Amino acid sequence: MGFTRLPIPAGLVPPMCFCGDPCKMEMSDEEETFRRRYWICANWAFDPPEKAVMKGGLEPPPLCDFEEWIDAEVAEKDREWFNEMRDWNKEEGGGAKEGAHQRRET
Description:
By secondary structure, the chain is an alpha+beta fold. The chain folds into two domains: 1-74, no CATH class; 75-106. Helix content is 31%, strand content 15%. It is built from three helices and four strands. It has helices at residues 50-55, 76-92, 96-105; strands at 3-6, 24-28, 37-40, 67-69. Strands 1-2-3-4 form a four-stranded antiparallel beta sheet, with no helix packed on it. Strand 2 and strand 3 form a beta hairpin. Helix 2 (76-92) packs across helix 3. It starts with a strand and ends with a helix. Residues 87-106 are annotated as: Disordered.
């Protein structure tokens, strides 16, 4: 699952993962779950730094696979936006996810 790490809003208490540590909040960038927020183990090295990959290991190593959705479904405006970007990107000859990231960042 692709993700974007998010700050935890005031008043929202993160659950404890299987490791016993508070989870971190992230947001999906996959089509089926686009922009849905979820909790994930804070110790999970989901997107390790390039240096760690080059060494042949993950630092820190994944400790558990705790994931829990915060948002029940993809918001209609996000679904429409993703579909527009996918269609736009098809016209431009690229992939939907790449186009979505490029347009969202500008």
